[in-house]
Amino acid sequence: MSFVAEEIESQPVCWEQAVSLADAVEVLPETGERVAVVGCGTSLYMAMAYAALREEAGLGETDAFAASEFPYHRKYEKVVAICRSGTTTEVLTLLQRIDAPSVAVIGSSGTPIVDIADAVVCLDFADEKSVVQTRFATTALTMLRAHLARSVPSVLPADLVAQSEAAVVAPLPPGAVLRSQFTFLGAGWTNGIAHEAALKVREAAGAWTEAYPAMEYRHGPISVTDERSLTWFFGTPPGGLDEEVAATGALVSVSGLDPVADLIRAQRLAAAIAEAKGLNPDEPRNLTRSIILS
What pTM was computed for the model? Predict the structure, then answer.
């Protein structure tokens, strides 16, 4: 079994720990603070999901940025950086430049970010051997959701851990591994989840993947969809859109699971496609575990 497969299967245990940890964390943004959330790659997409969730919950204006694209002219009361490795150059550079108080959500305490950020939340129980992120990202987002749920309980389903257990064993869409074009669709906070699902399939399997806000899919992207495609909705599809997609011949996935639990199924799909193509998901082409620029 690959490291990726083992780490995908371990997510329910990690999420349970993350929910418990959130009860004791006091350094994350408080209600009403103007917040920026930053990351790179997978961490950026978790930042997008968290930012949208926090703002939708009415807990404060929240923006998400790639660390390399941070608008230094804007003023924030707190900056949250999500960074598994604690060594990513763009994130470290940003934290050194900003004046606002910063919190780093990381996977390992023995890293340079600990000496730069003003506060740290370490999820070392969810750190990974893999280049491709799975459990760290979803655990970080689960911890952040659980922290939001202290103020707005509906942000975190009470049965989320049980849903993650179901997602680890739930069947993938029949014939999904044999498709050659994959589109992931979200709305609101699940846009970040859709982008992350596309990234997983792209990284692990080198496949043709795309991600869009669901209502934007009609505005051009649906033109590439045919019997070779899989179109995956996170959350409930907009009225009639799933039927329009099915009419193209594409395979359609609508699970009914919480979107982050459903992301586990997309991670499993990425690993399954890689294996079907004879690829090792632990050794994605042209990628390393952390991006450190000279």
Answer: 0.94
